[in-house]
Write a structure and sequence with these properties.
The protein has 3 helices and 9 strands. The protein is mainly β. The chain has a domain of 92 residues: Cathepsin D, subunit A, domain 1 (Beta Barrel). The strands form 2 sheets. Strands 1, 4, 5, 6, 7, 8 and 9 form a 7-stranded mixed beta sheet that branches. Strand 7 and strand 8 form a beta hairpin. Helix content is 15%, strand content 38%. It is flat, with a radius of gyration of 21 Å. It comes from Bos taurus (Bovine).
Length: 167
């Protein structure tokens, strides 16, 4: 019994815990500013409906209204630079705004400075990502990244140099 208990204790040390923070939805933010009714009046409500001939099924095209966006804290570099990132289950790409990004949307976020990290390595490769909500263009690099208690050395990630306001 003690051996099993010791084994379970050892396994529990392998668990990576990442605290998530629920951000306000767009709906909550504009409701607080008492702009929700105006916003809903201005937005088109074009839901397309497709039904099969026997009327057993119908599908509706829906748009995401940002009802649930979860952010977590990670660090990149040595010494660590802290970022709040979206743990997006629809994408496997990690990227953060770079100090070289001059897009208006970059100015709203903390930017990674490769010059301040002794472990950063440029990869001399460009990256471009397109999402339903916008896009980003930048370069790839590698550095030490910490997510919760998990430390990843030489992790490849993107440094945004240009991004649209929707990402």
């Amino acid at each position: 019994k003690w051996l099993v208990l010791l084994g379970l204790v050892a396994l529990s040390e392998c668990i990576v815990k990442i605290p998530l923070t629920k951000m306000k939805t767009m709906q909550e933010a504009i409701r607080e500013k008492q702009l929700l009714e105006d916003f809903l009046d201005e937005q088109p409500h074009s839901l397309s409906q497709h039904s099969d001939p026997d009327k057993k099924f119908s599908s509706h095209q829906l748009k995401n209204f940002q009802n649930a966006v979860y952010f977590g804290t990670i660090t990149i570099g040595t010494p660590p630079q802290e970022f709040q990132v979206n743990f997006d289950t629809g994408s496997s790409d990690l990227w953060v705004p770079s100090v070289d990004c001059q897009s208006p949307s970059c100015s709203k976020h903390k930017r990674f400075d490769p010059q301040k990290s002794t472990t950063f390595q440029p990869l001399n490769q460009k990256i471009e990502l397109v999402y339903g909500s916008g896009s980003m263009k930048g370069v790839l690099g590698s550095d030490t990244i910490q997510i919760g208690n998990l430390v990843i050395v030489n992790q490849i990630f993107g440094l945004s140099q240009n991004q649209s306001s929707g990402v």
